[in-house]
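Why do we bother with a discrete structure alphabet at all? Because it lets us treat a fold like text: something you can write down, compare, and reason about line by line. To make this less abstract, here is a complete entry for DUF883 family protein. Read it the way you would read a sentence in a foreign language you are learning: slowly, and without expecting to understand everything at once.
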Amino acid sequence: MANRAPHTHETTQQLKEDLHHLTQTIEELVSATADDSRSNIKELRDRAEKRLKETRDRLESRGERFYGEARDSMEHQVDACDRYVHENPWTSIGIGAAVGVVVGMLIGRR
């Protein structure tokens, strides 16, 4: 897990930069619309569209990667839990019973 902290910080920093560039381009586009220079507006619009597409692609890629990492982690945890239950069935039954008693007590208090 310690390996993910630098990766997360790097990803967060890249996301901030992407959003900053996109915001800056959109602000330029908005301020350019105050001018009546059609070529300037078209150039800024093209840049804004390009940055928007790049940012969207990066966000989709990161989202897919995060989903994959979370899915792999969850599968690993489920496999570890399944192994534990198969290796220690009576302990697992005891833990389940204890949790059931606690939940029953909490529900009974209402």
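What the structure line is telling us, in plain words: The mean pLDDT is 79. The chain has one domain: 4-109.
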